[in-house]
Amino acid sequence: MSILDLFSLGGRAAIVTGGSKGLGEAMAQGLAEAGADVVITSRHLDECAAVAERIAAATGRTIVPIEADVSKADDVGAMTQAALDRFGRIDVLVNNAGVNNRDATLDLSMDDWQTTVDINLTGPLLCAKAVVPTMQKQQRGRIINLSSILGLVGHPARSPYTATKGGLLNMTRCWAIEFARDGITANAVCPGPFDTPLNQPVKSNPELYKAFLQKIPMGRWGELDELTGVIVFLASDASSYMTGAAITVDGGWTAQ
Ligand SMILES: NC(=O)c1ccc[n+]([C@@H]2O[C@H](COP(=O)([O-])OP(=O)(O)OC[C@H]3O[C@@H](n4cnc5c(N)ncnc54)[C@H](OP(=O)(O)O)[C@@H]3O)[C@@H](O)[C@H]2O)c1
Question: Ligand 1 atom closest to Cα of 197?
């Protein structure tokens, strides 16, 4: 076996939640380019379907669009069943769907707090509960959780985001230990700023944008495909002895 074979995802099936845009779309494409068939989900089937068609045409893989809200257990159950019906297995779960909230802590409504917790923290838990039994039967699985640099360090006016992303990091470590004997790894990725729809409020505010740039030693935001290699690595056999890790992809933000 050559070293490159270790990175191949041929014959594997993946789920990418929030795969209709931004980082999720880029990661779904990367997994498909490495050989995986992929289910992509979001709350809008039309957007998922358009992305699925584009990635399938570009890669020749089977890409299945599913409408599913990760904060709803019934939707997550249906998403999991659809993946199994189509592929008969689930090798990779990328818990990517997420939202941000940038209200100052004293202005934050409890409804907005709860929505962020439901999507960013309860969502990944529901997805893991639905998918892990299949991975246990297979004695093989890769869970990749999209945390953030703001799961590692604080930021003003990000209470629900930092709390949920920090919580997701520690839940990743919990799963790493809990499922270690089942052939399942659980790792987290902590991106710095990437140019996605989630970050448009920062990108379109020159003052905020400049403040973000000043915090990045490399002096620039990440390009979407600068995350893809890490995701393919974590999804593949190349990372077989790695679990419970938090990988920063942040141009150096958290190195200082
Ligand atoms: N972009 C960055 O710089 C950055 C940095 C660090 C971490 N992250 C994390 O990376 C992940 C992706 O970020 P992004 O920037 O790509 O965000 P994005 O551009 O806003 O895309 C988010 C995706 O999640 C989906 N989504 C949102 N709520 C959902 C729900 N309840 N159920 C199912 N799907 C849902 C969205 O589709 P619908 O709204 O149509 O459902 C969309 O497909 C997030 O977890 C984010 O916190 C991003």
Answer: 19
Q: Strand, coil or helix: what is 223?
A: coil
The rounded Å distance from CA 3 to ligand 1 centre is: 32
Is 209 a known active-site residue?
no
pLDDT digits (tens, 9 = 90+) for 57-76: 999 999 999 999 999 999 99
Domain count of the chain? 1
Q: What gap in Å lies between CA 44 and CA 69, rounded to an integer?
A: 9
pLDDT of 233 above 90: yes
**pLDDT greater than 90 at residue 229:** yes
189 φ/ψ angles, rounded to the nearest 5 degrees: -115, 135
Q: What is the pLDDT of residue 167?
A: 98
Token digits for 136? 């246990």
Q: Whose CA is nearest to atom 32 of ligand 1?
A: 69
73 in a domain, yes or no?
yes
Of 20, 58, 19, 13, which Cα lies nearest the Cα of 38? 13
Determine the structural domain holding residue 191 and report its residue range: 3-247
Whether 253 maps to a domain, the answer reads no
Residue closest via CA to ligand 1's atom 42 equals 18
* 254 within domain boundaries: no
Q: Is the pLDDT of residue 1 over 90?
A: no
Residue 240 domain-assigned? yes
Three-state DSSP state, 45: helix
Protein residue closest via CA to atom 25 of ligand 1: 18
Give pLDDT tens digits for 105-151: 999 999 999 999 999 999 999 999 999 999 999 999 999 999 999 99
Q: How far is the CA of 181 from the centre of ligand 1 (A)?
A: 31
What is the CATH number for 120? 3.40.50.720
